[in-house]
Amino acid sequence: MIDMTPSLALVVVIGVLVASGVYLLLERSLSRVLLGVLMLGNGVNLLFMVASGRAGKAPIIGSAEPSEMSDPLPQAMVLTAIVIALGMVGFVMSMAYRSWQLNGHDEVQDDLEDRRVARKAAANAPAYEDADSADSGETLDEDAAATRDETIHDDEEHTVPAAPSDTAARPGTPEGGDA
Amino acid sequence: MTSALVPLPVMLPLFGAGLALALWKHSRAQRLITVAVLALMLAVGVGLVVAADSGPVVVDVGGWAAPVGIVLVADRLSALMVTVSSLVLLCVFLYSLGQGIADGDDEAPVAIYHPTYLVLAAGVSNAFLTGDLFNLYVGFEILLAASYVLLTLGGTGSRIRAGTIYVVVSLVSSALFLVALAMIYAATGTVNLAQLAERLPEIDGTTRLVLEILLMLAFGIKAAIFPLSAWLPDSYPTAPAPVTAVFAGLLTKVGIYAIIRTQTLLFPDDRLDDVLLVAALLTMLVGILGAVAQDDIKRLLSFTLVSHIGYMVLGIALSSQTGLTATVFYVVHHITVQTTLFLVVGLMERIGGTTSLARLGGLAKIAPLLAILFFVPAMNLAGIPPLSGFLGKVGLLQGAVQLGTPLGYLLVGGGLVTSLLTLYAIVKAWNKAFWQTPPQEIRPQRLPSGMVGATLALVVFGLSLTVAAGPLFDYAGRAAETLRARTPYTAAVLGPDGRGEGTSNDVVPDGGTVLPDVPDDGTPSPTPAESSTEVTG
User: Fold this and answer.
1) Tens-place pLDDT, residues A54-71
2) Nearest-CA neighbor of B178 among B228, B204, B203, B215?
3) Which residues of B touch A47 (CB under 8 A)?
4) Does A175 have pLDDT greater than 60?
């Protein structure tokens, strides 16, 4: 029977790596997300070391007794995972760079169409008080401008960005939910 | 003899990709290679469908015997999936040739499109054919890496935005899959699917449940099952039309395939079924309600895609012969129909210059053929009686009724409501895009015959699924039988003595004990060093 008790140091390191990885993944900046992916990935790779059981000698036939060898297969798997992670990290870095080239920052932006649909729904539902918008006193447009909305670059909506007056919006479409 | 066919759907596109990359200066040669490889894949797929009907075809890669080496297994389900996906890949590629995406007029880097597309094909086939959980991970990564490149082709602002979300979500799901793999290896000492099928029942029940949940989470993200589906409608619509079409058709279905495989082979004790049923119901309803609200037709279709994933999950969660048969049939139907619809939307965008339903209009008058091309798969998706979508849904609902529990009847209701709302969403799109007076003048463009031809081919194939529904349902039934019996799969992979047909036992030096002769001697369960899989680096 193989001793499968994991080393405490490994377990703690895995926990720290995964926790910080998840924290960083939740950030909006792509470079932080990238760091998060790296830490998470390394934590998972260490998990494979736990999965391989106790440490042993190099698993080469003739160099050690088979009973003293460590299990080579998780190491081969980790190697594969590392190689794949290298490629992925390279891709994410190039995406972050491209995003910086295009926008001057590498923050992940909100989905435009989502906001359009939400805005339309808000425009269609002026019949009841919306507690959220009534309290803040802000229009959806202001919210959108504050949350990195690309819509303002769209050709049809030049007028909206920071203008606080609702009347400046497009004719015919009642803008904002706080009518 | 037939076993020589099994590695071809993976090898051919990989070799083709290398060749196409080497010939990056000669776009005509690239096109020729890609079309030839995809056509060959289709032929091989058909051969496999025939061969697998008389039992799973197994190849021990590199001559390494089964539990140690990687195996590729083509049972009925795998062979069917490979064939349908090759057909879809071929048609979509012909469509993109017609569009001239490879000619650079869509901001696409010419040289990279063909090789990446072939790598995607290789990844999809590998995921379908592999008999090894770690190799499944590798297959996923191959297709994901290719899909990242395809999704961000040209690197425009909106594609980078959509690509970021897609890539990060995929990376998280891959990390989850890796965690599951590490834990499965720690618990059982193997990642070979057939051997896992034998060993998993022997380990502690709670541990097994954790492993099952981890795998379901990883695959659930890939298949876009409800709480894990938000990334899909956000990222797919921005890609070029053929890329969206192939993603919508194939990538989520790879996730569904992985769920079918693990649920039937590894975890046949059905403990997650109720959870999956609820997830299926929510996926259907939330997805279709999202679709109803959309104005952009590409997003509308992405939401229906999410919603109809719910039907497949329903069939899997029923874990009955009827349910599984209908699922296999429905997967084939849905791959075809969803891809076709996205291709048609590409044509609509080309004519109308936009995918916003508010701005499209009058297309039925401008392009009557296009109207037919949209109408037939749209009705098929909604499940209008004679078509294959109806047949698949009837099978699934039958299975849900057979279940007999209140949850089963709830799902019957949910399925019917979803089907109705699909009809509503799709008819709304039809009315706006094809019948309403154009809100702005549309200057009709001539549609390239290559694009129309490829779309027409897929529409006709979708219809032929209706005509050939009888034989296909029978085949799906036999596939489901094999899946549920499990022993045909494990016996074909491991053989009578617990080893595949490879020659690796010869490598052991005289009387060495490095590799045990038979894996199940006495207490086989948690002995990691015993045997497992060779890994491609």
Assistant:
1) 778 888 888 878 778 888
2) B215
3) 178-179, 182-183
4) no
Angle between helices B27-52 and B8-22 (to 10 degrees): 180
Does residue B195 sit within a domain?
no
Q: How many residues does chain A have?
A: 179
B363 within a domain of the structure (yes/no): yes
The residue type of B484 is R
Q: How far is CA B442 from CA B370, B437, B448, in A?
A: 15, 10, 17
pLDDT digit string, tens, across residues B412-435 = 999 999 999 999 999 999 988 888
Looking at the structure of chain B, the number of domains it has is 1
What pLDDT was estimated at residue A119? 79
B427: domain range? 274-485
Closest CA to B378 of B396, B358, B363: B363
Task: Please tell me the distance from the alpha carbon of residue B353 to that of residue B350, in angstroms, as a whole number.
Answer: 5
C-beta atoms of A88 and B171 within 8 A: yes
In chain A, which residues have their Cβ closer than 8 Å to the Cβ of B169?
A: none
**DSSP bridge partners of A107:** A29
Phi then psi for A4, rounded to 5 degrees? -105, 10
How far is the C-alpha of B518 from the C-alpha of B66, rounded, in Å? 11
Q: Which of A12, A100, A169, A53 is nearest to B164 (CA)?
A: A100
Residue B375: inside a domain, yes or no?
Answer: yes
3-state secondary structure of B130: strand
Preferred mutation among A111, A152, A157 to probe B, highest tally of B CBs within 10 A: A111
